[in-house]
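Hi W., the zinc ion complex you wanted:
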Amino acid sequence: MDEPRDPAPGDGSSRQPAVGVGRLSPVQQAYSAYTVHYLACVICRDVDRGWCDVAEQLWKVYQAADEVAYRKLTG
Ligand SMILES: [Zn+2]
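Structure:
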């Protein structure tokens, strides 16, 4: 009888984009876009390279989506 095997080990990175079975909320989509960019961007991954304009814009989009969601909750 075949026993289930453990999944293969990851690459050691703790940051992962949001992954869901269903549709992501706007906040999750914005955070996922930021995280996907961060993981692939040479500038973001190297603290000595300075500020990344793309990451800054994606972070602002995330903050705006978060603010909209917060206002909906607090009405
Ligand atoms: Zn970047």
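The mean pLDDT is 85.

W.
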